[in-house]
Predict the structure.
Amino acid sequence: MKILVVEDESLIGLNMQLMLEENGYECRLACSGEDAIAMMNEYGPDLILFDIQLNGKVDGITAARIIRKEHDAMVPIIYTTRLGDDLFFNQAKETWPHDYLIKPFSNRELLRKIELAIEQQKMTRHNRQASIEKVSQEGVFIRSANNTHKKIRYKDILCLTADKGYTHIYCKEEGTVGYKYYTVPVPIGSVVQQLNHSAIVRVHRSHYVNIQNVDEVRENDTFLAGVEVPIGRDYKEDFFSRITRISKK
């Protein structure tokens, strides 16, 4: 379980990070709203602890709004703040937080809030997964023009590309060597969660590929039916471990 702590008071942030790691959580620290936004694709937290008053131009509530819109609409957010007045509380509510903790609070109280948020998120994801329209695990339906739903088969998916709060899904075009793509107004992390397919592998902070459809691999790129996808440095080792290469031993 990965937790992102967004806290500009370094001592408080480091103490929270240490406490969370001692209780079995993976944890990273962001010191500003800008840093928190930048870390979303790289780190992909399962939960965010957000202070509201932060150094920099982007406060915690504004950063949470951007994350909800452009990165992950479902990640649990718990605000940890000294601001207890109704104005900030009502603004915070607009970002659908799981909780709002007023400082100072005990480690026990925070851990309980985290556990409850995680369990609630598991139930939410289970219910969402159960509601996704699937056909014998062959594929999914996505909304297209005129309020219709287009079936996409898993075997035809080439790659997925993030574009702020949207995701482009590239697919093989039947009967040709080319491809076509569909755009859905859903962040890429949520799309990958809903596809829930083991062949969809992250190769870049903004790109996933269907490893079963990779035609060619170079040092920093991979190719799928003519689509060129970059391989990020942080994802290269994992990607190459998933493909079989014949080489001298």
Q: What stands out?
A: The first helix runs from residue 10 to 22. Confidence is low (pLDDT under 50) at residues 130-136. The chain has two domains: 2-131, 139-241. The CA atoms of residues 42 and 80 lie 23 Å apart.
